[in-house]
Amino acid sequence: MAEEAILRFLQNNEQITDSGHFAAEFNLDHNEVVNVIKSLHGFRYIDVQDLKKETWVLTDEGKKYAAEGSPEVQLFLAVPEEGSISKDELQKKLAPSVFKIGCSQAGKNKWVEMGKQVSRKIQHVEDKVKGQLLQIQEGKDFDRDSISSLKARKLIVPQIWKGYSITKGPNYAPERKKVATDLTRENLQNWKELEFKEYNFNAKGAPLEAGHLHALLKVRKQFKDIFVQMGFEEMPTNNFVESSFWNFDALFQPQQHPARDSHDTFFLKAPSTTRTLPEDYVDRVKCVHESGGYGSRGYNYDWKREEANKNLLRTHTTAVSSRMLYALAQKPFVPKKYFSIDRVFRNEAVDRTHLAEFHQIEGLICDRGLTLGDLIGVLKDFFSRLGMSKLRFKPAYNPYTEPSMEIFSYHEGLGKWVEIGNSGMFRPEMLLPMGLPEDVRVIAWGLSLERPTMILYGIDNIRDLFGHKVDLDLIKRNPICRIGI
Ligand code: PHE
Asked: Where is the Aminoacyl-transfer RNA synthetases class-II family profile domain (predicted)?
């Protein structure tokens, strides 16, 4: 319809000066006309020039008054021609907003006498506001003064109207030719008669629907790459369920330790206990807890096998490290660098920075004669590869490391020191019962994957990163990689 009208019109006329007027004249929808113009212009049937005009449109409130009359006139009409009406009575007759606005406008216009009783001062009023609104609605001309008062009353708002003036283009024809768009056998056979649509080499392809990596997986990959570049081997972490023995006892964590309470740890109902543990090693662990050895006095309490047998959801990946170190101790000693990145579980109150499950990143180096200096050096190397070169260390406590250090990094964006991890040297009470040689030291550190990911991707609520509230669009749009925490 619109296409036919435009092309026919241009056959006999130089130009269409205003697509808006054209649409009104031919009773066409202007939006439809604009779409056709864009398409005809694309094929160069027509040349166009942009037109822009400021017009006014009614707000919802304006539309209401255009239909029902202005509040001041509604109020005026509710006041009896003779005598008066009490203000309360009048209020009951009108909608609250109509009453409020009506009172002030009708008072200002000196149409009514406002007091406890309301009476008319004149007998006839004209609803100019409604008239003006209707005029604007119909796109007619109107005077500047009424515009500013309607604008001040928020009954109208400005709107930019966009249209075109149109002339014939280089490919003009009174009717659109169907152009061939595909290189089919038939089209190639009579290519001489056909007009082919030009290729648009600038057109963007349709976005491919594909899977997207979650931000945690992307940052995990970055950490993995760093560990691998530094010569670390990945530990097998495929056991979310662990026994208390490997999670706590092997790490010289006493059985009364608060972390071993069900308020902090998820214990399993079924199967509630582990089946097998290496018995002679269990005996040595019992011994070191109860009475020490290897230069330690131990904790001096009755170590209970039942406690060690209890199954739980591992609370840290250091449980995996303890298994790996034990396995290492069963063979002639070779130095090792191990890492793991996987999920751990804690019975914590969930808030914007804590969930009951998260990912831990853990690294450890085991070799003869390592010192705290080695640990600090490795941490500096490791974190500087993540763009964190300003580090500070603070003495801390872990049952399985001595000395222990919390790791802080200066965050340029946040302008402050933030805690990024925990570290230490595993205690002899942990390493010697395993059977590792006496001069072997193990330096280790751990951090969460969520914290750096949140900093990197600018997320401040962990529930936006993990769980059912995560916005899938965010995952699709996130950059592949981020460097420099
Ligand atoms: N396991 C510690 C934690 O859960 C991290 C850690 C790992 C600390 C290795 C010291 C050595 O926070």
From this structure: 218-479
Residue 294: how many other CB atoms lie within 10 Å: 16
Residues in the chain with pLDDT < 70?
A: 141-142, 482-485
CB-ligand 1 contact for 247 (6 Å cutoff): no
CA of 398 to the centre of ligand 1 (A): 8
pLDDT at res. 140: 74
Closest atom of ligand 1 to 362 CA is 7
Does residue 409 have its Cβ closer than 6 Å to ligand 1?
A: no
Task: For residues 199 and 193, give the distance between their C-alpha atoms in angstroms, rounded to a whole number.
Answer: 18
Please tell me the residue having the least CA distance from ligand 1 atom 10: 423
The pLDDT value given to residue 146? 77
What are the two backbone dihedrals, phi and then psi, of residue 159, each rounded to the nearest 5 degrees?
Answer: -145, 140
CB-based contacts of 266-272 (< 8 A; 24+ apart in sequence): 266/312, 266/313, 266/345, 266/346, 266/347, 266/356, 267/310, 267/311, 267/312, 268/241, 268/310, 268/311, 268/312, 268/313, 271/311, 272/310, 272/311
* Helix spans in 94-251 (H): 96-108, 128-137, 144-152, 185-189, 215-229, 244-247
User: pLDDT tens digits, residue range 48-93?
Assistant: 999 998 888 899 999 999 999 999 999 999 999 888 898 888 899 9
> What angle separates helix 71-78 from helix 96-108, to the nearest 10 degrees?
90
Domain boundaries, the chain: 215-477
Residue 485 has what pLDDT?
54
- Listed in sequence order, the residues at least 6 apart from 43 whose beta carbon sits closer than 8 Å to its beta carbon are 171, 176, 179
Bridge partners, 365 (sequence order): 337, 443
How high is the pLDDT of residue 483? 65
**339, 361 in Cβ contact below 8 A?**
yes
Among the CATH numbers 3.40.50.2300, 3.40.50.261, 3.30.930.10, 3.90.550.10, which is that of 215-477? Answer: 3.30.930.10
Residue 109 sits at φ, ψ, to 5 deg, of -75, -5
Q: Cβ(470)–Cβ(464) under 8 Å?
A: yes
CB 265 less than 6 A from any atom of ligand 1:
no
- Please give the Cα distance from 485 to 470 (Å, whole number): 22
CB proximity list for 437: less than 8 A, separation 6 or greater: 333, 368
In three-state secondary structure terms, 53 is strand
In the block, tokens 């708002």 appear at 157
Question: What is the 3-class SS of 469-483, one letter each residue?
Answer: CCCHHHHHHCCCCCC
Nearest CA to ligand 1 atom 9: 445
